[in-house]
Amino acid sequence: MALKIASLLLLALVLCSYASAFTEEAVDCCLTTSNKQIPRKVVKAYREQTTNGGCAIAATQFITVKDKTLCAPPPGRNDWVAKLIRRLKTKGQE
Predict the structure, then answer these.
(1) Residue 53 sits in a domain of what CATH number?
(2) Distance, CA of 6 to CA of 10 (rounded, Å)
(3) What is the tally of structural domains in the chain?
(4) Which H helix or E strand runs over 46?
């Protein structure tokens, strides 16, 4: 009897884990970054990518007016990235 209950509990745990794995949202991460400067006129927004958010590397994701994501280094590692973020914040397009 105890073996049946333990087996049922194990099965329930496996099924719950399996179901939750398919209900989580996919994380859109940059896998690499480019140091090539992105023109301000093509960028409408940005977001910071962190390693504790489920991504392998820290990065800055710039969203273009055509809804493309361009991956740049974090602002602390590149001056043009920090400058572009400041410009987006002053324009209210964060």
Answers:
(1) 2.40.50.40
(2) 6
(3) 1
(4) strand 43-49
- The better pLDDT of the pair 6, 58 is held by 58
Q: For residue 14, what are the CA distances in angstroms to 2, 5, 21, 88? A: 18, 14, 11, 46
Cα 46 versus chain centre, distance: 11
The pLDDT value given to residue 4: 59
**53 within domain boundaries:** yes
Is the pLDDT score of 21 beyond 50?
no
Kindly state whether residue 17 falls inside one of the protein's structural domains: no
Predicted pLDDT at 19: 42
Q: Which of 25, 26, 28 lies closest to 61, judged by CA?
A: 28
User: Residue 40: which domain range?
Assistant: 28-90
